[in-house]
User: Fold these one by one.
Assistant:
Number 1:
Amino acid sequence: MRYYPVFLDLAHQPCVVLGDGKLAMEKAAALREAGAEVRVIPARNYKQGDLAGARLVFDASDDPAINRQSWEEAEAAGILINVVDRTAQCRFIAPAIVRRDPVLIAISTSGESPFLASALRARLERWLGREWGPFTELVGRIRRGLRERGVPIAEQTKVYRRLVRSELRELLRSGRGQEAEVLAASLARPGDHGGRVALVGAGPGDSDLITVKARDLLADADFVLHDALISPETLALCGPGAILEPVGKRGGGDSTGQDEITDRMIELARSGHFVVRLKGGDPFVFGRGGEELRDLIDAGIDVVVVPGVSSAVAAASSIGVPVTLRGVASSVAITTATGSDWPGRIRDLARASDTLVVLMCRANLAEVAAHVATAVGGSRPAAVVSKATWRDQRSVEGSIADIAQLADQAVIEAPATLIVGEVVGAVAAHILQAVAL
Ligand SMILES: C[S@@+](CC[C@H](N)C(=O)[O-])C[C@H]1O[C@@H](n2cnc3c(N)ncnc32)[C@H](O)[C@@H]1O
């Protein structure tokens, strides 16, 4: 690494900007904003000795002769200089800045690409909302109070953790400053505080399909109790201090009982921890999230629910099949091939809906397909998508009469979702027709 990052305190410090173009004016304005005493010297007026006493110099003259002279003068006097656009003549480089005062984030590509530095800045600005400014001020105020009262560091850290994981930033973002103050004051009281549980949807697999809110919660969680099918990339979004506890079942293997999972969440929350219960897809679509929510509320635990992208919809969209399509399908039924009543339910839903989506169907796909065919005829288009949005996603399409055999031939594995209806192939068929015309 060539550069050593620092933030300079230039308040009331003499600084010089050489040049009279737009860039020179920008540099002078930025220095003044930081409280520096800035002297701007037009390029034609610069003479040896003008830099004497300066802490920092920008040469924005864009004149090679002046550049050489200013560099030599600054080097001889030990003054920090930046000759704009000449990396070899820079004792410091100016980073791209994300401002969330008092938070200041500096980005540097070590001069490799100012374009990338500003692209990164734009990303960070979107990620780090304006509320981070007032939030940091609030935390700073609380910190000063705790220090004045001599609260031990370990207690202080617990307070900061509570503040970071709370809904404070959301309140500040939506302009509810007063409520934020009240909440912050209660969280800042040392002592025992109850924890929280977040029931969070992880989406169908691809870690990029998780919500921004879920990402934030994972970054702050003390414990993450997760299903078996959560990808390593998604689990990598957990903060470095998070304790991961796998609790899901996979292909009939060992799993933690539902009561055990709920008891564990209650136990952790009661001892003050922030727990994320991370579930595949959406927590409330055949994920037992509803039962968990009910039991947590009954136990008096503070709980939030964060929806996720359900495989019930993502499986179809991942192969370009819209579950509804104007003129083709205006109703969707989502069910599973589990429970003793599934054959009758699947036949009824196949008749009643334009598109039928069946989860947890891989083990008895042949039977499921046979029941659907009995209800709506064997020629209805169908698709099976396995591991939708994962890197090893696979799918087959065909008639419902043939689909189970096609899935076996293609070695389609669980988790897999069956989609039945005229929507399968409809968009591709339209495209083909358009080409034929
Ligand atoms: C217990 S259910 C949970 C569904 C989950 N809550 C959701 O909203 O996606 C598990 C079933 O979801 C379906 N499934 C989950 N992830 C999938 C994926 N990536 N591709 C296809 N189907 C998937 C399979 O049918 C699997 O058997």
Number 2:
Amino acid sequence: MAPTPNGMIAKENYDESYVSAGNWRLFVSKVRQAGNVIIGRKTFEVALASGVFPIGGVLNVVMTSKKIENRWGGKVLFTSRSPREVIGLLKKKGYGMAIVAGGSLVNTSFLKQKLVDELHLDLQPEVFGKGTPLFVEESFDAKLRLLGTTKLSKNEVQVRYRVLKK
Ligand SMILES: NC(=O)c1ccc[n+]([C@@H]2O[C@H](COP(=O)([O-])OP(=O)(O)OC[C@H]3O[C@@H](n4cnc5c(N)ncnc54)[C@H](OP(=O)(O)O)[C@@H]3O)[C@@H](O)[C@H]2O)c1
């Protein structure tokens, strides 16, 4: 995820233009390493409108309860399965790692079900008050252990955490 230091992942109207182009390239390379990416229906709509959907060469999993026409064949899977079932499906298909890439509803449902091992946050150099937060306002609590930090560019830092599971 590429949040602001105050934990926002999109401005109002789903505007993600505060995320740097370099960060997008980094994200895509990570997704290609995993071979898959899991996103919510709203993130899919934003990515489709901005021409970055689907990410080539990987399985794009879109979580939705709606019937959406699949124009992309095997590259894309629209599913109403639960987060746990989606992880099970990817394991069955032979993937060793899954990238949960938002938005906030998807992040929250995977975290709440203790399906997230690591949190990678690429902090973007901007703050704003209104928009979409990293997680939705629900009741959950996850303790984190710092795995490492990397300076990505002059103004961007990646912070990596392990999610501790009791
Ligand atoms: N900066 C970043 O790093 C970053 C990364 C990703 C996304 N974003 C931004 O985040 C915003 C979207 O976030 P959002 O929270 O509004 O929406 P979202 O999580 O992308 O999508 C929500 C939708 O996904 C489906 N969904 C979510 N959890 C599900 C579950 N457990 N089972 C089945 N379906 C599930 C539902 O679709 P249906 O209503 O169709 O059932 C739900 O309405 C966009 O602006 C996007 O650009 C930012």
